[in-house]
Each structure stands twice: as C-alpha cells, then as structure tokens.
Design brief:
Blueprint lengths: L6 E5 L3 E4 L4 E3 L15 E9 L4 E8 L9 E7 L12 H14 L2 E5 L11 H18 L14 E11 L1 H13 L11 E7 L22 H11 L29 E6 L5 H13 L4 E6 L14 H16 L3
Parallel strand pairs: 6-7, 6-8, 8-9, 9-10, 10-11
Antiparallel strand pairs: 1-2, 2-3, 4-5, 5-7
Family: Belongs to the 'GDXG' lipolytic enzyme family.
InterPro entries: AB_hydrolase_3, AB_hydrolase_fold, Carboxylest/Gibb_receptor
Pfam families: Abhydrolase_3
Length: 325
C-alpha cells in the first residue's frame, strides 16, 4: 500500500500543497483584523473576467466636491506572494477604503488567479485583463458602461496603478507592458505607478533577505512563494521574478511612466527594492524611492489608518498631483 498524501508546502495553514498534487485553501481564516466601517465610501463587486470568474471591487466616495471634480482612478493590486490574498480580505478592503477617502479617488481592486493552481504568468495576464476591462468601460462610458464609470464623475485620463508586494511586481510588469503614455489603453491614460515593497526575487541573496526575519515574514516563506508561483522548472532569476536577471528584458530603452517606490527599512525585500529603484534611476527613468524607518512588510495595508499610513497617503497625493498633466 502506498503512503497517504502528506503536506509538502504549507503557507501558514492558508494554503497547503500535498504530495499527491492536491491543494487545500482554507475558507475560514482568522484574520484578527477588524473591518473598518467607513460610511463615506460606497463599494460593490463586479465580474470583470467571465472566462476565469474574476471579480474586482469598486470604491467610490459617497459625495464628490466640488461638483465639477472628476475622480482620478487608482488601481490597487493586492499582495500575497502570488499564492494567497483577495480583494475580500479585511486588510485589502480596509486599505482600499483608506485610499478612496484619503485620495478622493475611485479605487479599483481586482483579484487575479493564484498559484500553484495558476502559476505565473497567470497573475500578470489577469492584471492586463483588468486594465483592458477599464479601457472597455471608458469606450462605453456614454453607452452601456458601468453606472459608476459612465456617470461623468471619473477621469479616465488620470489613472494610477498601485501594487502591494506581489501586486507591486505585477504593477512593474504592467508599466513595462503598456509603456509611457499607455497608448494601447486609449482613451485610458495611466499617469504613474506606485510600488509598495514590490515582491522581486533572485538567486543571489541580498543582505536584508538574510535577516533578521520580520514579525510576519521570513526567508523560508519568501522562497516558498517563489517555488509555488514560478513556472515549473524555473528559478528566482526568471524575468517575472527578477527584473534584472540574466534573461530579463533590457529596460534601458523602454519608456516608462513615473514610478513611486515605497518600502520599510526593516523589510526582507528592502535591498532588492532599493536596488530596483537605483538601477532604473541610473537608466534615466523618472523614479522616486522612499524608505520608512523601522517599518516591516505590510505596514501600510495592515494598518492603513496609522500615522505612517497618513504619510503614505500624502506621498501618493503629491505623486498624483505632480504627474496629473
């Protein structure tokens, strides 16, 4: 008799991969995180990809002032190492409420297919699909588009894309995919990208990756996410993990929209994120890198109403204002 299936990969009990290839995803997660009740923001869900049954959540301020003000659009792509996470999770929901109210913007929070059932590039493909959904809404804004997007209250020429962790990785690849001016998305115009501790990898270890571990994150977890999410047979130097790997696209001739990069000084990903910003700046890209002293991974989305989160909101406001023309 063969042995019973046993766990070979365990992501904090939320996701477990068994020796026979079966996968368990918990539907009863103890987040120990209260859901914020912000009555100033309306939200609802929308099926944007029928093929893969993918939804997004829209957030809109209840009142818009002045009356002639048009809401900018902020895409928020959640994190989770490409393996876990959802627009429905309390941390993502609270974060989007804060972004919508703090930035006076319409926030679009799409889900994407998760690994290991759907390895990369599935998540990136879904990010592209979500952007193309917005383009379709813009083209139909005067005839049959979504009510919130066809009311004349939003500005399709003022779109910003923000990604947290693995969502930041997706945001980077969207910036490269669409290029400066995002002409392929017309009449949608992306003005800039905000990367919050983007999840990049590489075979060579960085000093920050080697420790010390964070409260909720360690190198073993990072490596596990990469093992589960990379295409079969690939490693952490794959172009989807390492933007400067041996087989990665040369970004020097690629025209990119402005990028704002935020990271905590105590994050395992700090050195890799800092190097990303440094190399793009050396290439002449318009990129700004800001480090938050003493902060660990998830400091904004896990506590979006904190003092440091207020600072993040102000930085994003300034970034949006500087790149709105």
């Amino acid at each position: 008799m063969g042995s019973l299936p046993h766990i070979v990969e365990d992501c904090m009990g939320v996701l477990q991969l068994f020796s026979d290839g079966t996968i368990f995803r918990s539907k009863n997660i103890d987040f120990n995180l209260p859901i914020i009740d912000d009555t100033s923001i309306l939200f609802r869900d929308y099926l944007f990809d029928k093929t893969h049954n993918l939804h997004l959540r829209l957030y809109k301020p209840m009142s818009i002032s002045p009356s002639n003000y048009k809401l900018p659009i902020l895409f928020f792509i959640h994190g989770g190492g490409f393996c876990v996470g959802s627009r429905l999770w309390p941390n993502c929901h609270n974060c989007c409420l804060r972004l919508a109210s703090g930035l006076n913007a319409l926030v679009v929070a799409p889900d994407y297919r998760l690994a290991p059932e759907h390895r990369l590039p599935a998540a990136l493909e879904d990010g592209i699909s979500a952007m193309q959904w917005l383009q379709a809404q813009a083209l139909r804004s005067e005839n049959g588009g979504d009510a919130w997007l066809s009311s004349g209250e939003v500005n399709f020429e003022q779109v910003f894309v923000m990604g947290d962790s693995s969502g930041g990785n997706i945001a980077h690849h969207l910036a490269v995919r669409f290029g400066a001016g995002s002409n392929g998305l017309a009449p949608v115009r992306v003005r800039g990208y905000i990367l919050l501790a983007p999840f990049f990898g590489g075979l060579a270890r960085t000093k920050s990756e080697e420790g010390p571990s964070e409260h909720l994150l360690n190198l073993e977890i990072l490596d596990r996410f990469w093992r589960l999410s990379m295409p079969v047979g690939e490693n952490r130097d794959h172009p989807l993990a390492n933007p400067f790997g041996p087989a990665s696209l040369n970004l020097e001739p690629v025209a990119l929209d402005p990028i704002l990069v935020l990271v905590g000084s105590d994050e395992l990903l700090k050195d890799r994120v800092e190097e990303y910003a440094k190399r793009l700046k050396e290439m002449g890209k318009k990129i700004k890198y800001i480090e938050f002293e003493g902060k660990q991974h998830g400091f904004f989305n896990n506590n979006p109403y904190s003092e440091s989160a207020d600072e993040v909101i102000e930085l994003i406001k300034k970034f949006m204002l500087e790149n709105s023309a």
